[in-house]
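Revision sheet: structure tokens.
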Amino acid sequence: MLTPATVPASQYPDGMADQGYRVAVVGATGQVGTLMLRLLREREFPASEIVPFASARSAGRVLEGTAPDGGDLTVQPLTEDTIQGFDLALFSAGGSTSAEWAPRFVQAGAVVIDNSSRWRMQDDVPLVVAEVNPDALAEHHGIVANPNCSTMQMVVALKPLHDAAGIERLVISTYQAVSGTGRRAVDELLDQSHALLHERPVEPPSAYAHQIAFNALPHAGSFAAGEDHTDEERKLINETRKILGDPAIRVSATCVRVPVVNGHSEAVNVQTREPLSPERARELLTAAPGVTVIDDPAQARYPLAIDASGSDEVFVGRIRRDPGHERALDLWIVADNLRKGAATNAVQLAEQLHERDLLRPRAGASSNPQ
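Predicted:
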């Protein structure tokens, strides 16, 4: 792994760190990249400058109101010249772009937070969720990986249970929104729904293998040759173990794509190593950072995807004993897959890197990368 020339902000002369960081957002015109730009501004991340990057066909596009001061930003192309002089780069541009350009940003002196699957399982790249394992950031060598959205929301809820009683086995069924696939999939769901409601022919699907409207597809992600699990399912299995630091956890996962625009839902069966009552689990989750418990099924109060959309919290409900096992609990976990599942965690990690003096600010940076 390439190592950037990084110096903790605390070692800079007085006042230099206060001038802020130069931040690149790669994939800035996509759903997650757009949200990253907004969250950097809303959460007042200490940036002296934010530069959006995207594909060559988007270069020159003006993104209105996305600058830290509310002004406009102009999309830049990725070139050796334009990537120089950054302290931090947030990536949400796909695995191939991350594979090529993340190391180049690192060589140029930046720390990269990457939202693709390219670096997650590499041994020397920390895979980090802000509320779960932030200490792992200290082990970075230039690249920090953001987990898969389904893994992300689940481990926020599992962390306090794992700390209290250990986790022996997980059986997971996800119900994943189409926004996780991208804008084309959202449009496809809406177009198909409109056609069906108006008794018109449905166009052949392109985002998915089958019609998604009024349907459920047991096929979230892609099947590799000879593989009977999708890549989404493998991510849940492997990333959960890495983030929780426990390779012994046994994981069974089925990922389902459902006709929901935004917000992933998960039914998770948690078999603990030590006894843990539903009441104690509820107490632990109520006290956990980033978690909101909504659990009154008698009053039809439990987490819903439409309520989680637009929030940065992970919502947990239906906390109950599994009648088939004395050390197993069932949980229902819901979160906004674009926010906490992607953009929010990336910005939270940037904040943690700043707070832990793991970024290097540059004074007097030009507003036009050379």
